[in-house]
Amino acid sequence: MGKLNDDHKAEVTNEQTAIRTAYFSIVGNTALATIKGLAGFFGNSYALIADAIESTTDILSSILVLLGLKYAYRPADKNHPYGHGRIEPLITFIVVGFLITSATIIAYESIQNIGTPHELPKVWTLYVLGAIIVWKEISYQIVLKKSKQTNSSSLKADAWHHRSDAITSITAFIGISIALILGKGYETADDWAALFASGFILYNSYQIFRPALGEIMDEHTYDDLEQEIRNIAVTVNGVLDTEKCFIRKAGLQYHIDLHATVDSNLTVKQGHDIAHKLKDTLRQELPQIGHVLIHIEPNE
User: What SS3 class is residue 257?
Assistant: First the structure.
């Protein structure tokens, strides 16, 4: 009973951590979108305006991540015996859709601006960008750490939103610097920087999309966890070896199907007891595990 309470506390802690992290992203992205938009408008920098557009989509995607996390933490019910965790990769797909949309808008507007004469950006926009780059990289590190702590794929996608934002800000910084250093005739360097940033965002979208697709398709990418499970299993009294081990991820938990080999002379009751002991041990040693199905195999 004490162990079950500890597991429940760990799940609640992960839930609270993930939700607080999502709120952190929403507040940060709202503030930065406002700062970038104003700085881009008054500083004659389309790269900054493009950055603001991305941050605006980041706000919407972070809100979706928050709603998805709250739904994913609903307890299992009759219609969802494995819980509601699969909402997480679905939310990630929507987040990727926002990224692709923002990249497309940025690319289109950049091309339009390249062919339109405009003034050089203001020098002070570089100071704004410098501060933004530092903050977004810090945000990336914070959210990525929390995504690993909670096993959240949607938080990981949100973390990469922060990293892509930092990269687009770096390209904007470079573009504005070139325009200011080389002067008249190089005003479009700022717009070329925004165009390059849109390409990076599209590439990053694929990097986020691919793991989420694997999660939906039950792709096996958990070799380290599988080895941990096998190592722990053979420490349980009565378990001689392990055979098949299937792992699938749903939200913040991993569901396990494991074939364990035992002495063929044991009774059904003894095999049943070993299976329960093995299940309890795995969940005790690996709190990220959800459902565990143990199939008992007799040794030859």
Answer: strand
Claim to verify: residue 234 and residue 274 sit in the same structural domain? yes
* Closest-CA residue to 198 (of 97, 108, 109, 103): 103
- The residue segments making up the domain with residue 175 are 2-216
Query: Given this model, what pLDDT does residue 9 score?
Result: 52
Question: Tokens 């406002």 — which residue?
Answer: 34
- According to DSSP, the β-strands at 241-250 and 289-298 are unpaired
pLDDT tens figures, 211-241: 788 888 888 888 889 999 999 999 999 999 9
Q: Distance (Å, rounded) from C-alpha 274 to C-alpha 277?
A: 5
Residue 254 sits at φ, ψ, to 5 deg, of -115, 130
**Interaxial angle between packed helices 46-72 and 153-182, expressed in degrees from 0 to 180 and rounded to the nearest 10:** 170
What is the bridge-based pairing of β-strands 241-250 and 253-262?
antiparallel
Same domain, 164 and 260: no
Q: Which among 55, 68, 69, 54 is positioned nearest to 27, based on CA atoms?
A: 55
- pTM for this entry: 0.65
What are the pLDDT digits (tens) for 117-164? 767 778 888 888 899 889 889 988 998 888 888 777 778 777 877 887
